[in-house]
Amino acid sequence: MRPLNLVTVTAGLSVPSSTRLLADRLTGSATRQLTARQLAFRDEVVELREHATAVAEHLVTGFPGPALGEALAAVAAADGLIVVTPVFAASYSGLFKSFFDVLEPDSLRATPVLIAATGGTPRHSLVLEHALRPLFAYLGAIVVPTAVYAATSDWGAAGEAGSEELARRFDRAGRELVDLMGTHGAAERPADPYEEPVPFEQQLAAVRGGS
């Protein structure tokens, strides 16, 4: 069985970013679960701020640049996806939505997705249920039950979770994502026939042997 692909998409705009901080914590939770279960995996982070201009150009031209094309391909090939957005005007950011707008239709069908968001106040926590969960349900993804929202006040010193409840949500969300990756991941996705191509000499020998 090929390694599972874990991809994290983060839409933070600043450096450093609380959105990236939350993304890293959730990725760490999922990778610990994968390691504990002795599952082979690859993990990758897609930082959307690096593709902002290319996303805008793709929206008007219909063609992604090379770097954006690689990011879109990585997301489409994910066996498990973690998505984190800052809250803008009580919803996901425009950059976050635009990236998923240019993703090929059905790319996320049956893909397990962990949704998360950051904001300045706990009052925006419902963005997970009224904006993110419907978006990924529409895209055909399987959204894990536990979503994670972190306000500025949730972070303690050195970027650690400031409450035990938030830390528990990290662990629970990561566990639920990996549970679904095992059910809907590499075992159900067809292997890429070009990932390990048969050498031409071997193919030619087979043809000669059958003639």
State the helix count. Answer: 7
Biggest beta sheet summary:
7 strands, mixed
Strand content: 15-25%
Please provide the ordered H/E string of secondary-structure elements: EHEHHEEHEHEEHH
Output the CATH homologous superfamily.
Flavodoxin domain
Shape: globular
Structural class: alpha/beta
Q: Determine and state the CATH class.
A: Alpha Beta
Q: How many domains make up the coordinates?
A: 1
End-to-end Cα distance, whole Å, is 33 Å
Query: Roughly how many Å is the radius of gyration?
Result: 19 Å
The percent range for helix content is 40-55%
Counting DSSP E segments of at least 2 residues, the number of strands comes to 7
The average pLDDT is 87
Unreliable parts: 186-195
In the CATH scheme, what's the topology name? Rossmann fold
Q: Give me the CATH architecture, please.
A: 3-Layer(aba) Sandwich
Verbal overview:
This is NAD(P)H-dependent oxidoreductase. Residues 6-154 form the NADPH-dependent FMN reductase-like domain. Keywords: Flavoprotein, FMN, Oxidoreductase. InterPro entries: CE1759_FMN_reduct (IPR023932), Flavoprotein-like_sf (IPR029039), FMN_Rdtase-like_dom (IPR005025), NAD(P)H-dep_FMN_reductase (IPR051814). One of its GO terms (molecular function) is oxidoreductase activity. This protein is of the alpha/beta class and 211 residues long. It has one domain: Rossmann fold (3-Layer(aba) Sandwich). It contains 7 helices and 7 strands. It has helices at residues 18-36, 52-61, 66-76, 94-101, 127-138, 164-184, 200-210, and strands at residues 4-10, 41-47, 80-88, 91-92, 112-119, 142-143, 148-151. Strands 1, 2, 3, 4, 5, 6 and 7 form a 7-stranded mixed β-sheet that branches. β5, α5 and β6 form a beta-alpha-beta unit. The chain is globular. The two termini are 33 Å apart. Residues 186-195 have low confidence and may be disordered.
